[in-house]
Amino acid sequence: MTLTDTPQRFSQRLAPEFFDRVQQRLLPALEENGFDALLTDDPEDVAYLTGFFHHPCERPVAVWLERSGRVVLMTPELERENALRQNARAEVVSYAEFPGIEAPFASLARAVDRVGGGSRMRVGFTTHMTNERLTAASSQLPGATYLPTAIVTEARYLKFDEEIALHREAARVTDVMLEAGVALVREAVASGGRLPSEAELNSHVTGTGVRTMYAEHDDVVVVSPLAGALVYAGANSAFPHGLPSGYRLRDGDTFMLSLGCAVGGRFVEGERTFVLGTPTAEQRLYHDTIRRAQEIGGAAIHPGAECRQANATCLSVIEKAGLGHYIRHRQGHGIGLGMHEPPWLEAGDATLLTPGMVVSNEPGIYIPGHAGYRISDSMLVTETGSEPLTAFPRGLDDCTIAL
């Protein structure tokens, strides 16, 4: 089987019953923290708790989860049908419009008060809520006590089996995108035509990811980005998170395909660094060092390890090679409904890695005026270690495109 072999048709939408288990997972944490209810307006939290995906804007969407297990989803009226079409696992209440003659959160307050006096509650609000949104909510339930909490964020660390299946399929599509990017460059070389620009490569791989999902999947869950890419070459790649430009690839360039996509709203990223033409000794040193750091860093990702220790083990490979002054960032980060989310594989995060977490393993170095070198896989923490979900080859010999 090759990386691009197509499986049977894949459904991105999780069964409504899945969200019963998600909601039940939160109830003990509410009890332990003395909360009567939880309030969140974070779009990722909303999707995690109810299965409702929406386009965030000025109109608030929020979830209210009570310790009794009752779940209320507040939406603007124009999103109500979308929530019902997506089988949102919640009681849906709506408000007319924003800012509205009546405040949006009044609809949630009526639903809460209908079953027992929300004003007497201790309410945990997720830490992504802005002061403006929290004020809008608390003004409609003025007697409640509101306390910040990270219990939803921490629950999202550990993926259910159904979520892991979505991550695996996102990894397969990401590998397809990587293959498509390499194929475009090789076809240009073989034809003797112009080599693609960063922007052209970016458009091609992004389009490949989206087309693959719509061709092979049912119930595509649209998030932003559905498929995404950072493509940069030569000196441009020395800027982490640089944006694709009109720069056109040329002989001797180091170039980076930093790709990813979301299946069922669950992200994966896969990044590889390539050399166009015959690698120089300098390019081989840089690439081989990052490859070693990524391999050793992957082995350091295992149950019971602290995130900060995995990060230190990974980056020490670069430092021992005498290239530490080119390090610009941590080893990696959590990944799930967000492309970047906790925990962080960084010196300041002591979180213990646990089976079911998905984290990135992406050491990199960035040499001003020359290029950047980064290799990334999304890693599933298993009972015995960790497993890279993306499978595209990582070594320089496999990532060299001959001219």
Automatic annotation (TrEMBL):
Q: Which domain of life is it from?
A: Bacteria
Q: Can you say what this protein is called?
A: Xaa-Pro aminopeptidase
Instruction: Tell me one Pfam family matched here.
Output: Peptidase_M24
Q: Which UniProt keywords apply?
A: Aminopeptidase, Hydrolase, Protease
Task: Give a yes or no for keyword Transmembrane in this entry.
Answer: no
Q: Example GO molecular function term?
A: aminopeptidase activity
Q: Does the keyword Protease apply?
A: yes
Looking at the record, the residues that make up the Creatinase N-terminal domain are 24-151
Query: Which residue ranges does the record assign to the Peptidase M24 domain?
Result: 166-383
